[in-house]
């Protein structure tokens, strides 16, 4: 299984890391990144089993309040967004609607 992380998701990861580093220091930001990357890596085994939200599958992170939105075509997983679940759901919907523009 091939996993591709889109630029929108990379930006989301960078924003999340910055937020957690500003709250608890560099170590917390690194822990967040390691946890989310581990969750994304698990898609190589578990892609397609998560509930769908619109055109995306939605996997919840194990350790942080984040959701990983991805699509699946054959043996290719594309991670489109990694969004904080504490946000306004309307904002999440807007960000997901803009995620498939390229």
Written description of the protein model:
The chain has a five-stranded mixed sheet. The chain has one domain: RelE-like (YaeB-like fold). Helix 1 runs antiparallel to helix 2. The model has no long low-confidence stretch (mean pLDDT 93). With 102 residues, the protein is α+β, with helices and mostly antiparallel strands. Helices cover 47% and strands 27% of the residues. 25% of the residues are buried. It is globular. Strand 3 and strand 4 form a beta hairpin. It has four helices and five strands.
Number of domains: 1
**And the CATH topology?**
YaeB-like fold
Q: State the major sheet.
A: 5 strands, mixed
The whole-number mean of residue pLDDT values reads 93
Quote the beta fraction: 25-35%
Q: How does CATH name the architecture? A: 2-Layer Sandwich
CATH class: Alpha Beta
Fraction of residues in helices? 40-55%
How many helices? Answer: 4
Please name the fourth-level CATH homologous superfamily: RelE-like
- In spatial order, strands of the major sheet run 1-5-4-3-2
Radius of gyration: 13 Å
Distance between the termini: 22 Å
For the structure shown, list the relevant keywords.
102 residues, alpha+beta, 5-stranded mixed beta sheet, 4 helices, 5 strands, globular
In brief, what are we looking at here?
The chain has 4 helices and 5 strands, in the order βαααββββα. By secondary structure, the protein is α+β, with helices and mostly antiparallel strands. It has one domain (2-98): RelE-like (YaeB-like fold, 2-Layer Sandwich).
């Amino acid at each position: 299984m091939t996993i591709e992380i889109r630029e929108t998701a990379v930006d989301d990861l960078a924003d999340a890391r910055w937020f957690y580093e500003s709250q608890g220091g560099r170590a917390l930001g690194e822990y967040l990144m390691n946890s989310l990357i581990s969750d994304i890596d698990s898609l190589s085994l578990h892609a397609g089993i998560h509930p769908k939200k619109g055109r995306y599958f939605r996997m919840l992170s194990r350790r942080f309040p984040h959701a990983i939105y991805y699509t699946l075509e054959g043996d290719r997983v594309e991670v489109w967004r990694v969004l904080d679940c504490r946000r306004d759901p309307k904002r999440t919907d807007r960000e997901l609607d803009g995620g498939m523009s390229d």
